[in-house]
Amino acid sequence: MKKLLTALVATTALTAATAPASAEDTIKEFRIGILGGENAQDRMASNECYRAKAEKLLGVPVKLFTPADYDGVIQGLLGGTLDMAWLGASAYAKTYLSNPEAVEPIMVKTNMDGSYGYYSIGFARKDSDIKSLDDMKGKVFGFGDPNSTSGYLIPSIEIPNATGASMESGEYFGEVKFTGGHEQTIVAVANGDVDAGVTWADGMGEWEDGYNSGALRKASDAGLVDMNEMVEIWKSNPIPEGPIVLRSTLPERVKLDVTTLTASLPYMDPDCAYNFMAGEALGFQPINHDAYLSIIEARKLKSN
What we know:
The chain is of the alpha/beta class. 40% of the residues lie in helices and 19% in strands.
């Protein structure tokens, strides 16, 4: 994997360095949208080092935008007011289904074992005596955002298969509640505002750490939750990690520069990469549209 990324960095850097500048290469600013997994302040802080490096590389102001929900980022990409975002697979599917020409997937986060999958994790307070979905009948289940892959799409398909009931409030669960994002779900469970919730994690490493990477790891690092007080009650099948996407109409030189920066980040600045990648990960690898065909089909089915 490291050889692949090293080759990619070398190739793209050489291409960018030798490509002649032209009017088509010029942009006045570069705008990055950040999905709502954390509160806005923490999202800005986690991505600031990447923003600063991109600004230095591109030579134009680079701005971070933290819309209130996932759809704010999706609409920004569709409307051309955002140039880049790290989307979840479901958010990418919605973007593609709305306009197949709007964005291009370029990179995907790579786990420590070289894979690029992750999981939707159901969890509850250890002192709640909830150990599985069987214990959740009639209780309040928290989900992040309707456009989140792990925070809703995959659970809304797999959990009904396990319970034999729909996700409608009152049918199996007492209430299905949207919290607004992964961090909000974790805090809601920790505070007892909901009985259980779902969020995302790579499923590797130790539960007590919040696994190696993901929303639980971020929350644990930030002191928002003590993982020793939480218990896993459900785990999805593997989900393809969402792609970093670029607006398709960006100049090719800009695309090459941003791809190079992203691929080289773990070797250039490991601390920055840790924050940007939501924990410990190997790095990034190239990805394309075909990796998300199954998620696109799932979104089509949910919209019917």
